[in-house]
Amino acid sequence: WENMDGTTRERLSHIQGIPLLERVVKYWPRVEKFQASEEDLLIATYPKAGTTWTQEVVDSILNEGDVEKCKRAPTQVRMPFLEMTAPDGITKLEVMDPPRVIKTHLPIQLVPRSFWDAGCKVIYMARNPKDTVVSYYHFDRMHLYQPDICLVLCKMGILGWGSWYDHVKGYWKERHNKKILYILYEDMKEDPVREVTRIAQFLKRQLSKSTIEHIVQMTAFSAMRENPMANYSTIPDTIFDRTASEFMRKGEVGDWKNHFSAGEDAAFEEHYRKIMSDCPIPIRFTI
Ligand code: A3P
Fold first, then answer.
1. Domain-embedded: residue 138
2. I want to staple 20 with a disulfide (CB 3.0 to 4.6 A). Which of 24, 81, 196, 274 is the partner?
């Protein structure tokens, strides 16, 4: 499926059996050796689970709702993407002073060891797989470096960053052994005040009710969509083809209903129930 349309789309290569973009594999030794510090915070997600949203919420909490401070630079500069940014990004990350907020899509077993040795906090956000795959599909249409995908590949776990199932289960099973706050996209959509409060408590930030409410407004889909420092409008058109889709696309729970036929849904449900039977993550497909 690589380069079928003759674009710059990259191939997937593997690290410990996990498919990753070739550029990630190329610089893997530097990623693996990355030295985290105790004050660093890792935001981990499977792609399209609401990473950017979580990042904006975290930055708003750390800056106590100061809009101007949160607009100091685009998301990818404020909170670098650990494995993807090589080689320039990892160099920047290496010289950035802790506390750093770092984004990753790596499954838990590939997270550089120094994060666990240092005892870093991790915020993991999961999103139901039907909406995740729809979002991934549309993202793939616009992101000209991503290989082409389809639902079957998702089931088989050969999308970039591997199987959604293994990813969400990996962090879930370790959440009590490590400092992992596990949050769900659907919960944040349903009650953002409650979830932002949980994140602030995890980060040991005392914020007033009005600051929390202000942060919820600042990080709402409609606000982030209009914010050039949070909507990836700084990524050039040669990488993000906005005629195909938008990064800030819909931001809803249940868009999968517009894409899954009844038959596909039934097949997916059967597959999902079977594979998730050993791991009761309370993920909802509608709210
Ligand atoms: P959709 O494609 O369903 O709209 P990631 O940041 O992990 O790449 O995830 C992107 C998805 O999160 C996109 O989903 C995007 O619209 C959604 N998203 C981004 N900001 C959001 C927000 N503030 N509220 C809800 N969803 C948001």
1. no
2. 24
Distance 53 CA to ligand 1 centre (A): 6
Distance between Cα 12 and ligand 1 center (Å)? 24
- Shortest-distance Cα residue to atom 26 of ligand 1: 251
- pLDDT at position 1 is 36
- Ligand 1: residue whose CA is nearest its atom 22: 221
Summary mean pLDDT of the chain: 90
Residue 287 lies in a domain: no
Number of domains in the chain: 1
What is the ipTM score, two decimals?
Answer: 0.99
Position in ligand 1 atom list of the atom nearest CA 230: 20
> Does residue 21 fall inside a structural domain?
yes
Domain that holds residue 56: 12-129+160-235
3 state DSSP class of 43: strand
Please say if 167 is a catalytic residue. no
Q: What is the CATH number of the domain that holds 112?
A: 3.40.50.300
